[in-house]
Specification:
Strand order of the largest sheet: 5-6-1-4-13
Shape: globular
Number of helices: 5
Helix content: 10-25%
Order of helices and strands: HEEEEHEEEEHEEEEHHE
Number of strands: 13
Number of domains: 1
Largest sheet: 5 strands, mixed
Distance between the termini: 82 Å
Structural class: alpha+beta
Strand content: 15-25%
Length: about 230
C-alpha cells in the first residue's frame, strides 16, 4: 500500500474516532418506553438520566423540558402496570409537574390522543377538567399553540392504532363542557366498550443508564375537582 493510501486510511480512522468520542448521552426525565414498540418495555427511572440514543417517535410521543425528553403518551401498551388515570381526547400536560421539577412558570404542552386513553399522571392543577364515570375531559379553551401543532402531533393516533391493549371504558358521550374532538367509534351509548386485554411484559435487555442530576420536589399544589355537567 502506498504512503498516500496509508495517510488516507489514518485520516479516516482519526475522523471516525473523533465522531465516537464526541457523541453525547441523550437526557430523559421520567417513565418512558425503551424502544418504539410495545415489546420493548419501559424504563422506570423517574430522575433525569441518560441513554445512548434519541427516543423512537420523539416528535409525537415526547416533549422536551430543557434538554431532557419527557414521555407524555399512553404507557399501557408498553407494559405499564402502575396507577392509570383515564382521559378522553386532547388535553394539556404540565411537563414540570409530571417530572417533579420546580419552575417559576409551568411548562404546558398538549396530548393529542383521540378518544379514551390512559396516562400515569393526574390532570394538572389549575386546568379545567370535568370528570364523568372516572374519565377526565378537558373543559377549557385551547390556545393557538395547540392548534398550530395539531397537524403534526395528531400523528400519535396513527402510531397507536395497530396496538391492541385495554382502553378506558366510555359508555356515555362526552359532557357538554368538553372542548376536544369526539371520536364516535369509541363512544358506546348503550353498550359498554369492551377492551382487548393484552398484557405486554417488558423484555429483559441491557439498558445502561447514568443519573446526571438531582430533582427538586415541587411545592404541594391542590388539584381542583369538578362535577359532571352532562
Amino acid at each position: 500500500m502506498s504512503r498516500m493510501s496509508l495517510m488516507g486510511w489514518a485520516l479516516l480512522l482519526a475522523l471516525a474516532g473523533a465522531g465516537v468520542s464526541e457523541a453525547k448521552p441523550v437526557k430523559y426525565a421520567g417513565l418512558h418506553p425503551r424502544t418504539g414498540q410495545p415489546d420493548g418495555g419501559l424504563c422506570h427511572i423517574q430522575a433525569v438520566h441518560s441513554h445512548a440514543a434519541v427516543p423512537a417517535h420523539a416528535q409525537v410521543l415526547y416533549r422536551q423540558h430543557g434538554d431532557a425528553y419527557v414521555f407524555i403518551g399512553d404507557p399501557v401498551p408498553f407494559g405499564y402496570e402502575g396507577p392509570r388515570h383515564p382521559y378522553y381526547g386532547h388535553h394539556p400536560v404540565v411537563i414540570n409537574i409530571i417530572i417533579n421539577v420546580e419552575v417559576e412558570e409551568d411548562d404546558v404542552e398538549y396530548c393529542y390522543h383521540d378518544g379514551p386513553h390512559y396516562h400515569a399522571y393526574e390532570p394538572p392543577p389549575g386546568h379545567d377538567f370535568d370528570e364523568q364515570e372516572d374519565v377526565h375531559y378537558y373543559a377549557d379553551e385551547f390556545p393557538e399553540a395547540y392548534r398550530r401543532d395539531s397537524p403534526k402531533l395528531v400523528q400519535v393516533n396513527v402510531l397507536y392504532r395497530p396496538w391492541r391493549y385495554t382502553l378506558p371504558v366510555v359508555v356515555k358521550p362526552p359532557p357538554s363542557s368538553y372542548r376536544g374532538p369526539v371520536v364516535k367509534v369509541n363512544v358506546n351509548v348503550n353498550v359498554p366498550a369492551v377492551g382487548v386485554d393484552v398484557r405486554v411484559q417488558p423484555v429483559p435487555a441491557r439498558h445502561e443508564v447514568i443519573i446526571v442530576e438531582p430533582r427538586e420536589r415541587p411545592r404541594h399544589r391542590k388539584h381542583k375537582k369538578f362535577k359532571d355537567r352532562d
